[in-house]
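Entry for the shared binder. Reason: the reviewer on the internal report wants the predicted structure included alongside the sequence.
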Amino acid sequence: MTGDRETRQSNMELFRCVLMLCVLTVHYNSWDMGKAFAGASGANLTVLYFVESLAILSVNGFVLLAGYFGYRRTKVSLRKPVGLLLTVIGYNLLFYLGEIRVGLSFLDPYAVFTKCIPNNWYVILYVTLILISPFLNVVVRELSQKQMQRLLVITFVLFSVWSTVLDWGQAWLGIPVTGVSTVSIGGAEAGYSIVNFVLLYFIGAYIGKYGGMQYGKGWDLLFYLLCALVIFLGSLINTTVWEYSCMFVILESFFLFNFFRKLSLKSRWINFLALGTFGVYLISTQWFVLGWGWLKFHIPEAAAGSIPLMLAHWILTVTVTFVGCAFFDIMCRKIMTPASRLLDRIGILNQPLVDVSKEVKDKENQHE
């Protein structure tokens, strides 16, 4: 849930904040996190399914942003990947100490060891994407616009459309798909794969380089809602439509991304809050939020009440969680500024691990 920002564009920072609210919404609904699905039934559950269908684009949106802002990158060092992984470990240890302090855990060497493992699927895939991005950007730079369009169509069909057809065939009709997927032997991994990340990165990079479609932003919003409607209707049959690799989820994220890209907006407050989005993601999955904070919000009970009350409770819960976690993360990063500066001074971390800038410059000189 991080991203490269060459300039702080408030419209895209607002999109980042909206995406994080979507992440919190998915967690709010989740059977094993917020448990709203567990408490809802009948019309309430149907409404929550539609809310989920609106919000499921969150992860895809963040990867689109990575491609949109990062497609010019020609070199990468270990500084940012290491910083992200250390942030995950730091919050793991911080909240583990909190658990010990309130008596929910006790100090155990093995537990400390496990907390030092950055076992966060999104961060691991995002770090992988960062490390290979200069090579992906060579593809973006060298292909013509028409060639890039063909690449996007081919990869979208192979890794999203075909995967969606297989997943739906297996889930709805019981058709065996083992060994038929273009992503892995077992299928598309619901989009939890570097394949899906690379596809989305290329889409974001294409929009960053060529500007995307130029029709009015109202159409983007309409297409986003239509995709959400299709996802919702599909979810009433089987929830495989909520997979990140689903073609309608990818299209949904594309249209909402395009909508925010076309907004004209400047706000220091939005830029400030957006600084904490990555921290919100990490903090909101810790026991302090899931096992204590959200427990006090009584989410399953609210999901069983009247629909207006349920919706108001959802909005209040995710908003309070977002703002609280964002300010906590910003405060923590202020405190840890000396540690960040220390990482900036470690030579091995700041030396280019991958550098294609020389090859790019030589190629440009040949063209001249």
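Summary line for the report: The mean pLDDT is 92.
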